[in-house]
Amino acid sequence: MAITISTNFESASIRCLSIKEPGEIQLELRDDPIGGERYWYYFRLLGVRGKECRLTINNAADAFRLAEREELDIPGPYVDYRACASYDRVNWFRIPTEFKDGLLTFTIKSERDSVYFASFAPYSHERHMNLIDHALTSKAASLEVLGKTHRDNDIELLKIGSGDPETRSCWICARQHPSETMAEWFTEGLLEGLLDNNNAISRSLLSKATFYVVPCMNPDGAWSGRTRRNGGDVDLNREWVTPSMEKSPEVFLVQQRMQETNVDFFMDVHGDEELPYVFLGGPLEVPSVTKKMESNFRHFQDVLQTVNPDYRRGYEYPGGPPPNPDLRMAWNYIGETYRCLSILVEQPFKDCTHAKDITQGWSPERSKELGNASLTAIHAVLDSL
User: Fold this and answer.
1) Beta strands, E only, 132-231
2) Is 259 strand, coil or helix?
3) DSSP letters spanning 212-257
């Protein structure tokens, strides 16, 4: 069987330059349109059963990183990183990976004819649909389609709870950046816990709050294999001040619904290509920050690190707090607009530096556990919001 690279499936992204032999496969990351961000890869390698394979991504030195970090002493996206591999797209594991002289190289002796590689374990459209369907088996849950994206995908909102205006309104949005699949894994864990009738924390939460959950803010980018952009070629997490139906209907329509429900708590769930730990950002630098917002955030942090040690306080944002917070970002904008506890959740593509897992690194399972644990932290601060 000839050795080939396949990308003719959902969320796939890579460019094959050459295949001379199993030990010399040359690849390139694909760019997002307009912005040119590149990081996400997901592809299938065929015809390699029992062969020692060596794959090199030649333009890895130009992988996406935030501009404000370029002058800081932070390892780049692929330093201390290991690629993800799978034979069945269900069970993912890490493989030996080296980043040297701008080249990202990973190796594997394949046990099967077909093996998949990805930046992180993908979260498929099929699994997304199953997540929605499973949520709707609960009488507490309902689905709203807020509108359509540029590519005619539904902008889906799950409402969990009564919707009574006397209850708190808790909003969770995930995966504004489509490559950050750990965000939707996190949301799956949160929803599983929230919809568990045997979970006393969840029963208490739903007696006091209604949850509005957007499991995938960027379906256009997610299903087409982009790194950060939506179908309108914009970064949704820079659209919150002036969203539009022309460029960012996802943000525009979510904001419209928020105005109807009010927002007492907000959590924006992401993944980070560079930082080797779970990081939380709070509404601490917004112009209208209050002592109550700050104390609620610190209490949330303390509880989360107690119930899930994968999160540890002390990993503050690199470079310190910005003098002028970027209100185009969701958690800053919502914190300022609604004077509420607004939290950014960042999970690593790599591993958690203080709790390493040699086989899987940071994984879908750990993301789900963190999402579930966040319910306890929300419960701890809910009455004081």
Assistant:
1) 141-148, 154-160, 168-174, 209-214
2) helix
3) EEES-S-HHHHHHT-SSB-TTSSBGGG-SSS--TTT-HHHHHHHHH
Predicted TM-score (pTM) of the model is: 0.97
Q: What gap in Å lies between CA 82 and CA 359, rounded to an integer?
A: 10
3 contacts 22 by C-beta, under 8 angstroms:
yes
d(CA 359, CA 258): 41
Which residue bears the tokens 């709707």?
Answer: 136
Q: Which region among 70-79, 124-133, 314-323, 334-343 has the lowest average model confidence (pLDDT)?
A: 314-323
**C-beta separation of 25 from 47 below 8 A:** no
**Active centre residues (catalytic):** 346
**pLDDT of 57 strictly over 80:** yes
| Three-state secondary structure readout of 303-350 | HHHHHCCCCCCCCCCCCCCCCCCCCCCHHHHHHHHHCCEEEEEEEECC
> How big is the chain by its Cα radius of gyration, in Å?
21
**First vs last Cα of the chain: how many Å apart?**
61
**Residue-range domain boundaries for the chain:** 4-118, 125-382
With a cut of 80, say whether residue 266 has pLDDT above it: yes
What class has domain 4-118?
Answer: mainly beta
Q: What is the Cβ-side half-sphere exposure of residue 251, based on CA atoms within 13 angstroms?
A: 28
Question: Got the DSSP string for 61-110?
Answer: GG----GGGTTS----TTTT---EEESSSSSEEE--EEEETTEEEEEEE-
Does the domain formed by 125-382 have CATH 3.90.1170.20? Answer: no
- The residue among 145, 155, 269, 139 whose CA lies nearest residue 206 is 139
Separation between Cα atoms, residue 187 and residue 381, nearest integer Å: 19
